[in-house]
Amino acid sequence: MGLNYTVLSEDEKTCEVGSNVDASGDVVIPSTVMNGDNEYRVTAIGTDAFYLNIPMTSISIPESVTVIRSQALSRCLGLTEVVIPNSVTEMGSRAMYACNYLERLTISSGLREIQRETFSGCPWLEEIVIPDGVEIIHDEAFNYCARVTSLTIGSTVRSIGVMSFAGLGALTSVSIPASVETVGREAFSYCNKLAEVTIEEGGSPLSFDTDVFGQTQYLGTYDDPVAKNRHPQYQPALHLHILRRQTDAFRLQAYAYHHQYRHHSPGTSRIGLRRLRGGGNCKLRHDRMSRSILIHIQQCRLLQCHSRRTALLRRKIPFKDSVE
After folding, report:
1. Best CA proximity match to 258, nearest among 245, 272, 247
2. In angstroms, rounded to a whole number, what is the distance separating the alpha carbons of residues 292 and 241?
3. Does the model's pTM come out above 0.90?
4. I want to staple 169 with a disulfide (CB 3.0 to 4.6 A). Which of 70, 146, 182, 229 is the partner?
5. Which has the closest alpha carbon to 147: 166, 164, 130, 122?
6. Is 41 a domain residue?
7. pLDDT tens, residue by residue, 36-55
8. Dist. CA 296–CA 257, nearest whole Å
9. Count of domains for the chain
C-alpha cells in the first residue's frame, strides 16, 4: 500500500508525508514521488503522520527530508530502530515520543536544537548519543528512558533543559562537556544509579539550576576507611569531578542537590544531601595529580535508637574551595 502525501509548494514541487496511521511492515519513504506528470520532492514528515501506528516495524527516511514535524513518529509501538539522516535540521516536539520498544536510535548531526519531549518515554532505548552540532537540549527531551546505560553529550551543546535526562534509571555516569553553560532544574533527577558526574574543563561559566541531581538513590562503596570506622552509616551518593578551574564553574546553586527523603528498607530511611554548601554534608578535595576537584557528597541514614526514636548522625567535614 502506498503512502499518503500533502503538497507543500507547487512552485518548488515539494511535498510532505501525510497521515499514514495504517502503514504496515517495512516503510520506505522515497525521496521523490509522482503525481500525474509532476514529480515532487519529499522534504518533510508531517504532523501526526505515523502517530500511534502499531503495524509499522521499520522506517527508512531519505536524505531529501529536512523536517520531521511534531508527533510525526510518536507512539509507533512497532519500531525498534530508527536512523534520522543528517539532512534533518528540524524536529518538532514529541516527534518520537513514547516509542515504547525503540532500542537503537541515530540522531541527525544536522539538528541544532532537540525540542521538548522529542525522544521522551522510550523505555527500551539503551544508548543516547547526541552528536556534535546540537546546541540546545530543551525540557524533558530524553526523560524516562529507563534502560539507557550510556549517554554521550556532544561537544557543542550549550544548554541542557529542565528534566532533560530525568528518570534515566540505569545510567551510572555522565560527562558534561566544556561547551555547556546552563543545566536546568532537575535535569538529572531520578537517575537512580547515577554515581559519577564529570564536568569537563572549559572557558565558559557553568550555572546549575535547582535540584539538578535530585532524588538520586545510588549508594556506592565507601573510600574513606577512617570515617567508615567512625560512622559506618556514611556512604558517598555521588562523585562530581569538576575540571573547570574558573570560580564560576562552582556556581552550583544552594539546592542543586535538594533535600531527599527516600525509604530504603522497612524501619530504615535515608536522607540525601540537602545543599551543596550544607557544611557537614559534603567536602571538596583538590586532587594534585589530576588537577581536578572532587566533591564527595555524603549520604547518611536515620538509625533507630534503643528508645525506638530516630537520630540523625551528623559529621562536619571541612572543605577547600580554592585550587592551588
Report:
1. 272
2. 7
3. no
4. 146
5. 122
6. no
7. 999 999 999 999 999 999 99
8. 12
9. 1
